[in-house]
Design goal:
Layout lengths: L6 E6 L2 E6 L12 H14 L5 E6 L10 H9 L3 H20 L4 E5 L2 E3 L1 H7 L3 E5 L3 E3 L13 H9 L1 H10 L2 E3 H6 L5 E3 L4 H13 L3 H13 L5 H16 L2 H12 L9
Parallel strand pairs: 2-3, 3-4, 4-6, 5-7, 6-9
Antiparallel strand pairs: 1-2, 7-8
Helix pairs in contact: 1-3, 5-6, 9-10
Length: 264
């Protein structure tokens, strides 16, 4: 695997992990860190040995969003081109995460603010520490949500609640984020790595073809009516039925054993 300045990557037992690694800055984005995240995600997605992707942060934060000192420098220098490149890099990360047919889990180990919040939102599932928090903090520094926040947030919590969270810019704690549907699961801080690993292992053991098509269908349903989704379900179900994994799953069920899915 490639090496990165501010990102750690690992592959183990079918689980690929991307760890944001600027703990002294709460994993805030600066320089080429956004590009590194996008590159690392694409690299792990392309790895046939990776069945599930996990994104997390080193130290006590998931990601504090933009590095304020770096942003101040760009503003002082009126470096609009560099700022535009940062926004584009964030778009690349979100697109890479959302477009993969592999499950992606955000393991939110601490504060997730601004772009860091929306990095978590673009993942398929969010498992959070009870010490985590999350917020759309953009307007506190005079900026607009990016990293797909205006797309993901209203789909998770509804438009009105999304308006409140964006307008106030407040950080909300893990319990409240779980209550309104942002976090799927909240676990004690000491158990986060284990809980994330258990979920990732469960998903890695599932039939890849069926998982990929189910993920695709669920996201397609956001902009489709019932008739369209019934047609999509028919198409995808037929593809699954013709797969070797379906035969393996049925045989394993009848044999009362654990299936060994190969994505074929």
């Amino acid at each position: 695997m490639s090496t990165y300045k501010n990102i750690l990557t690992d592959v183990s037992d079918g689980i690929g992990t991307v760890t944001l690694n600027r703990p002294e800055k709460l994993n805030a984005f600066a320089g080429r860190m956004r590009e590194e995240v996008a590159d690392a995600v694409r690299e792990l997605i392309a790895d046939d040995g990776v069945k599930v992707l996990v994104i997390t942060g080193a130290g006590r934060a998931f990601c504090a969003g933009a590095d304020i000192d770096y942003m101040k420098e760009l503003t002082a220098n009126e470096d609009y081109e560099a700022f535009g490149l940062l926004v584009d890099a964030g778009r690349d990360v979100v697109t890479a995460v959302r477009s993969t047919d592999k499950p992606v889990i955000a393991s939110v180990n601490g504060p997730a603010a601004g772009g860091g919040a929306n990095l978590a939102l673009c993942c398929d599932i969010r498992v959070a520490s009870d010490t985590a928090s999350i917020g759309q903090t953009f307007n506190k520094i005079g900026l607009h949500p990016d990293w797909g926040g205006t797309f993901f947030l209203p789909r998770l919590v509804g438009v009105s609640k999304a308006m409140e969270l964006v307008f106030t810019g407040e950080m909300i704690d893990a319990r409240e984020a779980h209550r309104i549907g942002i976090f799927n699961r909240v676990v004690p801080s000491a158990d986060l790595a284990i809980a994330t690993r258990e979920l990732a292992t469960t998903l890695a053991d599932k039939p890849p073809v069926a998982m990929a098509l189910a993920k695709k269908a669920l996201y397609q349903s956001e902009n489709a009516d019932l008739e369209a989704m019934l047609a999509i379900e028919f198409e995808y179900q037929m593809r699954c039925f013709k797969s070797a994994d379906a035969g393996e799953g049925l045989n394993a069920f009848l044999d009362k054993r654990k299936p060994e899915f190969r994505g074929e």
